[in-house]
Amino acid sequence: MQAPVKSEPLVKKTIKKDVNITKIVKTPIVVKKTKIVSAPTISAKQQYLKVNFSKIASAINDAKFYPKKARKLHIEGTVKIKFLLKHDKTVKILDVSCNKRFLKKAAIKIIQKASTEFPPPPKDIEINIPIEFRLKN
Predict the structure, then answer these.
(1) Which of 27, 55, 66, 67 holds its CA 20 to 30 A away from the CA of 17?
(2) What does the pLDDT look like over 69-115, one tens digit per residue?
(3) What are the structural domains, with CATH classification, of the chain?
């Protein structure tokens, strides 16, 4: 905590009526600096995802399909996809990380199809989401 800041003393003049003597009284003024603390702000992205994440996940699950060639070749894996959801509900794929091309292409198609069901964000938002492809035994 910082020490209080002292300013110039306030000068008061007091005049006694029965005697013509001017008396000067010095009163120091102490000013304390206070720190303004504000509540943490939630970004637009965090606010949007907090409200709409379940709708986005549901739309992706509804659009999800397993590619025939990947199923035939018993290919499984998780695709991490990063996309920009624009305020007009269009999507721009930014990054897809997976070394299995059938799953990679399927994940892109899933996001593009599901984006029509996403709630529109107030401004463009970047979203990272994993899509898991597992074959049932």
Answers:
(1) 27
(2) 999 999 999 999 999 999 888 899 999 999 999 999 999 999 999 99
(3) 44-133 (3.30.2420)
Torsion angle in degrees (nearest 10) through CA of 72, 78, 84, 86: 60
From CA 134, how far away is CA 4, in angstroms rounded? Answer: 65
Q: How far is CA 87 from CA 18, 46, 93, 114, 130, in A?
A: 81, 15, 15, 15, 22
How far apart, in whole angstroms, are the C-alpha atoms of residue 137 and residue 133? 13
Output helix, strand, coil percentages for the chain, rounded to the nearest 5: 30, 30, 40
Distance, in Å, from the CA atom of 106 to the CA atom of 101, rounded to the nearest integer, reads: 8
Q: From 75, 62, 64, select the one nearest 110 (Cα to Cα).
A: 64
Q: Look at residues 63, 131, 129, 126 and name the one whose alpha carbon lies nearest to residue 102.
A: 131
| Dist CA 121 CA 87 (whole Å) | 5
Going by DSSP bridges, is the β-strand pair 30-31/5-6 parallel, antiparallel, or unpaired?
antiparallel
